[in-house]
Amino acid sequence: MPHRSVPDTGAPATSTSGVTTDAPTPRSLRHDISLSAVVAGCVAVLIGYSSSAAIIFQAAAAAGADQAQIGSWMWALGIGMGLTSLGLSWRHRIPLLTAWTTPGAALLITQLPGVPFEQALGAFVVSSLLLMVVGMSDVMTRLMNAVPASLAAAMLAGILLPFGLDVFQAVEIEPVLPLALLACWITARRWLPSMAIPVVLVAGIVLTLALGQLDTSSIELALTTPQWTTPQFSLKVCLGVGVPLFLVTMATQNLPGIAIIRSAGFQPPVAAALRWTGLASLLMAPFGGHGINLAAISAAPCVGEESHRDPRRRYIAGISAGIAYLVLGLLGATVTALFTALPQALVMSFAGLALMGTLGNGLRSAFHSDTDLDAPLVTFLITASSITLLGIGSAFWGLVAGLLIHLIRNRR
User: Could you tell me the pLDDT band of residue 88, with boundaries at 50, 70 and 90?
Assistant: First the structure.
């Protein structure tokens, strides 16, 4: 079946056959909904929160935020990601997930100590405005059209490889849990392939409770109260924090995020997505949100066959993730405490198994050609190496190196 092809304009989306595909009606939504897609969206949120929520707390602490402001920071990110994931996936009928900028948060940890919280928010506003400006042009669309599909797939595989390895590295931490989940995954893939991840999720929760490895005594259910702080603008902070935050977000989050969606056969509305994520970042900045962008790693479970065999019904995963983000944003600190209470072996094993199918598809797409393996191989290896140069992560450098090799090999 053809995937949805979304023009980068304000017009309704169209499929490859030219049929208009407006936002789904309640009737079509009921037809398209599936348990596998709903679970895929929840898995994406689990991966996002469990893998980098601690970094957000460190960034907020570096900015001098108090406990109420940290809770507001998490609220802003959850609400912003929820609205954009839900709205973009609903409007364009493809799984368009958004996320917070984890590399951007890592940058803030080093750059914000000594910076007043109000000036930090001013830098967030500047970064958001720059994202919106890029979204009003077609620069990113032209750039991504120049990237061969094999390189995008190789970058995706390189990003996901560490998660696949985590399944087996978790055996050193707690051998019973990862090996049991691996056995469940293999069995479910044989008999219930579309339900493999839900089966692993249920098995993981049951085993964790049975082994007594989930301590919920410190978790309290409470809604988060957003805290408005009026941003202040310092030229030094805006140039030293706001501009680098924008550059890191574009290079390490939006670029890989677009490539991952394209590697699954979808044509994302690049400019529209950048405009809306930039606007959401701008609106959430006074509440502490440091930036919302297209998801990269956490989007992987939603764009592949694990979400649904029919690509036209995978947008449900994006809607599911959006709703989950909204709930987590409202609960804020409660949810963060829950994720912190999960055993590390469970998080590592579940994330790796949830991404295993997408990793395999990425490798197959990257190396399907027998004549041009150099460019995707270098892209894959550099991306998987997790190196950081000039403050920019390995996904960007892997793609740059692959493009250079591709251009050299195909130069007339």
Answer: very high
Task: Band the pLDDT of 134: cuts 50, 70, 90.
Answer: confident
Q: What is the pTM of this model?
A: 0.72
Q: Helix and strand tally (H, E) in the chain?
A: 19, 5
- How far from chain centre, in Å, is Cα 344? 20
* Phi, psi dihedral angles at 294 (to 5 degrees): -65, 140
> Sorting pLDDT into bands at 50, 70 and 90, what band is 97?
very high
Q: How far apart are CA 54 and CA 280, in angstroms?
A: 22
Strand duo 20-21 + 13-15: pairing: antiparallel
Distance CA 270, CA 265 (A): 14
Cα–Cα distance for residue pair 74/96, rounded to 1 Å: 21
Residue written as tokens 């290896």? 381
DSSP E strands: which ranges in 87-208? 98-100
As a whole number of angstroms, the distance between CA 249 and CA 105 comes to: 10
Contacts with 242 (C-beta within 8 Å, 6 or more apart), sequence order: 122, 123, 124, 125, 126, 127, 130
Give me the pLDDT at residue 377, please.
93
Tell me the C-alpha to C-alpha distance, in Å, between residue 371 and each of 71, 153, 376: 53, 16, 11
Write a three-state SS string for 53-120. Answer: HHHHHHHHHHCCCCHHHHHHHHHHHHHHHHHHHHHHHHHHCCCCCEEECHHHHHHHHHHCCCCCHHHH
